[in-house]
Amino acid sequence: RKSKITASRKLLLKSLMLAKAKEEWDQEIVDKQAEKERYLAERITPLHTSGLSLSQLQDLCRELHEKVEIVDEERYDIEAKCNHNTREIKDLKIKVLDLRGKFKRPPLRRVRVSADAMLRALLGSKHKVSMDLRANLKSVKKEDTEKERPVEVGDWRKNVEAMSGMEGRKKMFDAAKSPTGQ
């Protein structure tokens, strides 16, 4: 499908649109500045302090202080409303994300789960599958050196008396030496 407008015509129209948008933007900036100056001129009256007595200056200061308090209260109220609105906007954004189903996933923690519990979670409670993972493991025989030695079962009190002192230590040393010598 071919475009009906040539590339040069498209470029010309695009540049004209950008130029018009820039003009409107500049005009909007000038209008905002003029509105600001008009508002400030309306709200702020010039202050004439020359030729006033001390009591008149004090009254003027009190009047200005009252106006400052009123403006400060308004500013505080507006700031509170703004904070309330931002909180409400944040809550609404979270609700919208929840409704869409797309939300930021929290970092996952490691949890020890048995194989049966994992299968139950994946397949649901309908399927009762039990899997013994240990049954599939190879069995390995350990070489137990203690089985090769004969274990003497007897009265432990005699053994303690026989092993006491230096003679007992010599017997233990000889006993430990003899199996390795064979």
UniProtKB/TrEMBL annotation:
The residues forming a coiled coil are: 22-74
Protein task: Troponin I is the inhibitory subunit of troponin, the thin filament regulatory complex which confers calcium-sensitivity to striated muscle actomyosin ATPase activity.
InterPro entries reported for this sequence: Troponin, Troponin_I, Troponin_sf
Entry similarity comment? Belongs to the troponin I family.
What GO MF terms are annotated? actin binding
**Gene Ontology biological process terms in this record:** cardiac muscle contraction; skeletal muscle contraction
Q: Record's Gene Ontology CC terms? A: troponin complex
Keywords associated with the record: Acetylation, Actin-binding, Coiled coil, Muscle protein
User: Cell division: is it a keyword of this entry?
Assistant: no
**A UniProt-annotated Pfam family:** Troponin
**Tagged with keyword Coiled coil:** yes
Q: Which domain of life is it from?
A: Eukaryota
Supply the Gene3D superfamilies for this chain. 1.20.5.350, 6.10.250.180
Question: What quaternary arrangement does the UniProt entry report?
Answer: Binds to actin and tropomyosin.
State which gene encodes it. Answer: Tnni1
Official protein name in the record: Troponin I, fast skeletal muscle
